[in-house]
C-alpha cells in the first residue's frame, strides 16, 4: 500500500470538518478513530500515540472475524475496519488528523479502491503480512 496525496487531502478535509463540528460520521472506504487526549495536537508524542491506538484498534478486529464463514463471530462485533485495512485490492492510503473542540483527536484513513463494497468474502490469502520499517 502506498500513500496517496489526494487521499491524504481528502482525509484531512474530513478530519478538519468533523473536528470543527465535534462530530463523527462514517463513509465506505474509510476508517475513523477518536482518541481521548488532553495534550495538544502539536505534541508529536500525542499524535504518534493516537495513531498507534487507532491502527491497533482497527486491526484487533481480526479477533471478531471468522475466516471460515467470512462473517463476524458474534452479531454485535465490528469487523469493517479490519477488513478495510487488509483488503488486497486497496493499494492507496491517505490519512488526516485534527483536534476536535472537545480536545479529542480524530484520525481518518481513506483507502482506494474501497474494500468490501459488495460484501465480498475475505480469506487468509487476502491478509497481507505486517511489515515494519
From TrEMBL:
Stored Gene3D superfamilies: CAP (3.40.33.10)
Domain SCP: 2-119
Domain of life: Eukaryota
Pfam annotation, one family: CAP
Family matches, as InterPro entries: CAP_dom, CAP_sf, CRISP-related
Name of the molecule in the record: Oidioi.mRNA.OKI2018_I69.chr1.g3643.t1.cds
Organism: Oikopleura dioica
Amino acid at each position: 500500500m502506498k500513500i496517496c496525496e489526494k487521499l491524504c487531502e481528502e482525509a484531512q478535509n474530513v478530519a478538519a470538518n468533523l473536528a470543527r463540528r465535534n462530530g463523527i460520521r462514517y463513509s465506505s472506504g474509510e476508517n475513523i478513530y477518536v482518541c481521548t487526549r488532553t495534550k495538544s495536537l502539536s505534541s508529536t508524542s500525542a499524535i504518534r500515540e493516537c495513531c498507534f491506538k487507532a491502527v491497533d484498534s482497527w486491526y484487533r478486529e481480526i479477533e471478531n472475524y471468522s475466516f471460515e464463514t467470512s462473517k463476524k463471530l458474534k452479531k454485535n462485533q465490528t469487523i469493517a475496519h479490519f477488513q478495510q485495512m487488509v483488503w488486497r485490492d486497496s493499494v492507496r492510503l491517505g490519512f488526516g488528523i485534527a483536534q476536535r473542540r472537545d480536545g479529542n483527536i480524530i484520525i481518518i484513513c481513506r483507502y482506494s479502491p474501497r474494500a468490501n463494497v459488495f460484501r465480498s468474502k475475505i480469506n487468509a490469502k487476502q491478509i497481507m503480512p505486517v511489515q515494519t520499517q
